[in-house]
Amino acid sequence: MLSAHYAVVFLISLRLCLLGCNGDKIRPFLTYYETVSYNRDQLFKDHQRSKRATNQVQSTVQIEIFGYNRNFELMLRRDRSVFTDDFKVMSDDTSIPIDISFVYSGILKDEGESFCHGSVIDGYFHGSIQTRNGTFYIEYEKHDNGTVESYIYHEKDIDYSLMKDVKSFELSLKKYEFLERMKWNSKEESVTRTKRSVDMSRTTCLMQLKADYLFFKRFRNLQEAISQIAGYMRSVNAIYDQVNFNGIKHINFKVKVLNIIQEKQPDNAMNSAYIGPEKLLMLHSSYNYNNVCLSYLLTNRDYNGVLGVAWTGKEGNNGGICSMFSKLKDAPGTEGSLNTGIVTIQKYGQYLPPRLIHITLAHEIGHSLGSPVR
Ligand SMILES: [Zn+2]
């Protein structure tokens, strides 16, 4: 009896250690996760079939995953709703034809109120499952030795305390104060402002996103990078769908253009890995984004805890959403855009789990919409 008891304790602690201890080292933002497996061959085949299907006769892709003492049966269909119909991917000023049929959404077979979103690439799934018991995340990681590990975790198993350290918060405040002093002048003559007069209920905000080389390198290929971005947008929309933001209700974001830098560009000022966040934002803002209401740069840089910065939204052309390309204050001859922001996907050298990136992006977009800094 006693030995049986010890065996159980040993097994439990072994399991905890395999999961928990790994979590400490490999995935420092997760306090717990479970590795999972599913029928990849079937998923690969189903995805191929779904890809060939027409929009009218879409086929369903099913995935069965066991984790957290529960069977998750996902029923998915192609979903490109976070991209505009004329969505295009640009690389080096050239449009690259890309099929984004690997992005899916759906429900759990036994839970009608659930919502699943994610991507199927090479027979692997990554994404999120919103259930009545909270949101679960499924991800995979390709190791350098060629093995791939799939795992699941619950939103409550993310260590949020790492997001809230005082040091990085204070540093972010400083960056914002600096940016406030750097603001562009509104060009009085071009004030055909519709920004605040526009009915912001049920409004779609079109975005141009840029993914720099460091972001691209983290995800290794176009499909992976785009699938991450689809997840960001889906989650940001879910967050904004629930809030009444200064009278802006049900605002919805869609990506119109995605610029991806796939190779190092030694001649590009943004290429250096040693540019501070405010400088990176200034460089990103030196382009004209009048064709969209917001433009964000996604990067993978260690900014001492600062996860993003954006020009804060103000009345008129003084920053934030829908600001037009105009002259820079105190720097005659310089022009730029204030409907911009940047977000990094790492903190203190560690990659953030998607949920923390979603929160960061939603938070920065909040500043673009006029949310005060603090
Ligand atoms: Zn903030």
Automatic annotation (TrEMBL):
GO terms for cellular component: plasma membrane. Residues 202-374 form the Peptidase M12B domain. GO terms for biological process: membrane protein ectodomain proteolysis; Notch signaling pathway. Transmembrane segments: none annotated. GO terms for molecular function: metalloendopeptidase activity. The active site is at E364. Residues 1-23 form the signal peptide. Pfam families: Reprolysin_2. Keywords: Signal. This is Peptidase M12B domain-containing protein. It comes from Engystomops pustulosus. The lineage of its organism: Eukaryota, Metazoa, Chordata, Craniata, Vertebrata.
